[in-house]
């Protein structure tokens, strides 16, 4: 539904301006659920576990502070602790002291975790292609991207580079090199 006429007054539950918001929430819930089901079925990983592995893989030295990881995957600190516990049990992640501040704890991606992430990435990317890109008209992608970027900026900062621990002095690769 395209809303072209602004509605005066305070927002109410019957305000037609809520239609895009409700559509956004519904689409997000359904897409997230479907992609979670695919990852669980094919790789025995939840979407939260996949996102955690991806976040760690993209971080410097494939290590990330637990607090930053919690913010990145939208979990509480206790929630990310339980998630990392499962990943440690599966041998996908190790815990370690922060390289820049030994008081901080980090999640560190293992070789097994990177292998599992790469395999699951094929399923995840296929899901994005089938359930998002194939549905959204090509002309609408740029508008959707600008809109989501604007919403993200207005919502404030998220997990940032400053939250990650400093890389080892010998590491010359960038997060993008570590795919």
Notes on the structure:
With 179 residues, this protein is mainly alpha-helical. It has a domain at 32-154: Orthogonal Bundle (Arc Repressor Mutant, subunit A), CATH 1.10.10. The chain has helices at residues 18-43, 47-58, 66-72, 77-89, 111-133, 138-155; strands at residues 63-65, 93-97, 105-109. The protein has a 3-stranded antiparallel sheet. A hairpin with a 7-residue loop joins strand 2 and strand 3. Helix 2 crosses helix 5 (111-133). The protein is globular and about 55 Å long. The N and C termini lie far apart (39 Å).
Record keyword descriptors for this entry.
179 residues; three-stranded antiparallel beta sheet; 6 helices; globular
Summarize the structure.
The protein is mainly α and 179 residues long. The protein is 55% helix and 7% strand. It has a domain at 32-154: Arc Repressor Mutant, subunit A (Orthogonal Bundle).
The CATH architecture of the domain at 32-154 can be named as Orthogonal Bundle
Radius of gyration, Cα only, in angstroms? 19 Å
Number of strands: 3
By CATH, the superfamily of the domain at 32-154 comes out as Winged helix-like DNA-binding domain superfamily/Winged helix DNA-binding domain
Task: Look at the helices and sheets and give the structural class.
Answer: mainly alpha
Secondary-structure map:
Blueprint lengths: L17 H26 L3 H12 L4 E3 H7 L4 H13 L3 E5 L7 E5 L1 H23 L4 H18 L24
Antiparallel strand pairs: 1-3, 2-3
């Amino acid at each position: 539904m395209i809303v072209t006429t602004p509605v005066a007054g305070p927002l109410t539950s019957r305000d037609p301006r809520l239609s895009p918001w409700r559509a956004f929430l519904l689409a997000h819930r359904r897409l997230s659920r479907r992609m979670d089901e695919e990852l669980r079925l094919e790789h025995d990983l939840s979407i939260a576990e996949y996102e955690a592995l991806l976040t760690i893989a993209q971080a410097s030295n494939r290590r990330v502070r637990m607090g930053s990881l919690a913010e990145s995957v939208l979990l509480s600190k206790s929630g990310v602790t339980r998630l990392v516990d499962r990943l440690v049990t599966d041998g996908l992640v190790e815990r370690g002291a922060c390289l820049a501040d030994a008081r901080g704890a980090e999640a560190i991606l293992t070789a097994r975790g990177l292998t599992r992430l790469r395999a699951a990435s094929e399923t995840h990317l296929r899901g994005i292609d089938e359930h998002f890109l194939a549905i959204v008209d090509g002309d609408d992608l740029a508008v959707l991207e600008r809109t989501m970027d604007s919403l993200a900026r207005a919502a404030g900062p998220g997990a940032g580079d400053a939250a990650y621990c400093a890389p080892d002095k010998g590491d010359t690769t960038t997060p993008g090199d570590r795919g």
